[in-house]
């Protein structure tokens, strides 16, 4: 068995999710017989701590900034420690939504139209026809995301607030009506398609992680051709961005127009009790502990 460090918590707005993901992964690793040390980068000199521990592998359960944007991956590369999920370049690229979209567009992945703006510019006037979606360019878990709906008589004033904490660049995208879908990729295989049915009208942070915030229909009730297209696009995006290990791609599907678009690729998907990747793995016959075992076996350096 191995000495495994689980990185959890961190400093991003997704810290609460990471704490739960990390606790679940650490418990599974212990059940698998590994010696496990949990390190929270918010606590002291975590890099020195990690270097002193000299683990065999790191299970990265961090989300958001300093978790899935390439910075932690760069530290682990420098230390020469094998770790789970994608490496520095793929993590940094996928976290930057605008740059990732440019790569995915070149691969022919179907995408929503949009533009990248400074948040102050986006607040001067409606940057595109209503309704549209405003997303921080480098956050995950729908942190800071909101919809500007039909009838809004002024541009998004939230972007001017002094406590806006989600970066200066925002991605403005057309709102795609219809179904919220997601596809997990494990290695070189897409698992299946889940439809997410939020209890509110928008699949925001609360709907993603609060108990009862959403229901998941697995497999999604879709035409076979649409399910196949979503799985193919998720795998193409995973490979095209240079990802490794586990990723999860989120989609919108408008059944009235027969339009499927990929919204983003998550290189550090949640591993909480309500998370989608463990649920899809279970649907394919892989229990949570087996999934964590797969992730640890897949850990490598350099990524």
Keywords summarizing the entry:
single chain, 303 residues, alpha+beta, four-stranded antiparallel sheet, 12 strands, 32% helix, 24% strand
Outline the secondary-structure elements.
Layout: E1 3-7, H1 15-31, E2 35-39, H2 46-53, E3 57-60, H3 71-79, H4 88-95, H5 97-107, E4 114-118, H6 119-122, E5 132-136, E6 146-148, E7 169-174, E8 179-186, E9 189-198, H7 205-209, E10 214-217, H8 224-240, E11 246-254, E12 259-266, H9 276-283, H10 288-298
Parallel strand pairs: 1-2, 1-3
Antiparallel strand pairs: 4-7, 5-6, 5-7, 8-9, 8-11, 9-10, 11-12
Helix pairs in contact: 1-10
Would you write up a description of this structure?
There is one protein chain. The protein is of the alpha+beta class and 303 residues long. The relative contact order is 0.17. The mean pLDDT is 92. The strands form 3 sheets. A 5-stranded antiparallel sheet has the order 10-9-8-11-12. The chain has a 4-stranded antiparallel sheet with strand order 4-7-5-6. α1 (15-31) packs across α10 (288-298). β11 and β12 (259-266) form a beta hairpin. The chain has helices at 15-31, 46-53, 71-79, 88-95, 97-107, 119-122, 205-209, 224-240, 276-283, 288-298, and strands at 3-7, 35-39, 57-60, 114-118, 132-136, 146-148, 169-174, 179-186, 189-198, 214-217, 246-254, 259-266.
| Molecular shape | globular
Coarse structural class: alpha+beta
Enumerate the strands of the largest sheet in spatial order, edge to edge or round the barrel.
10-9-8-11-12
For the record, give the distance between the C-alpha atoms at the N and C termini, rounded to a whole number. 22 Å
């Amino acid at each position: 068995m191995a000495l495994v460090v689980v990185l959890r918590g961190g400093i991003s707005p997704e810290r609460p999710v990471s704490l739960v993901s990390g606790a679940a992964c650490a418990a599974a690793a212990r059940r698998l017989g590994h010696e496990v040390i949990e390190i929270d980068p918010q606590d002291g000199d975590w890099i020195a701590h990690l270097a002193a521990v000299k683990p065999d592998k790191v299970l990265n359960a961090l989300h958001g900034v300093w978790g899935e944007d390439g910075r932690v991956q760069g530290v682990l590369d420098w230390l020469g420690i094998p770790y789970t999920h994608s490496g520095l370049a793929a993590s940094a690229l996928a976290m930057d939504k605008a740059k990732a979209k440019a790569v995915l567009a070149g691969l022919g992945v179907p995408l929503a139209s949009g533009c990248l703006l400074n948040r102050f510019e986006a607040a001067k006037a409606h940057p595109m026809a209503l309704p549209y979606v405003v997303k921080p360019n480098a956050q995950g878990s729908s942190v800071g995301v909101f919809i500007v709906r039909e009838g809004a008589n002024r541009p998004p004033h939230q972007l001017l607030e002094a406590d806006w904490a989600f970066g200066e660049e925002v991605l403005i995208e057309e709102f795609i009506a219809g179904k919220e879908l997601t596809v997990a990729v494990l290695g070189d295989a897409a698992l299946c398609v889940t439809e997410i049915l939020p209890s509110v009208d928008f699949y925001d942070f609360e709907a993603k992680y609060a108990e009862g915030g959403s229901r998941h229909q697995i497999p999604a009730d879709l035409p076979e051709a649409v399910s196949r297209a979503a799985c193919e696009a998720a795998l193409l995006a995973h490979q095209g961005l240079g990802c490794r290990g586990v990723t999860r791609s989120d989609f919108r599907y408008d059944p009235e127009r027969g339009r499927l678009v990929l919204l983003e690729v998550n290189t550090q998907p949640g591993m909480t009790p309500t998370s989608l990747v463990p649920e899809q793995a279970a649907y394919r016959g892989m229990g949570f502990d087996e999934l964590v075992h797969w992730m640890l076996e897949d850990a490598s350096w350099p990524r």
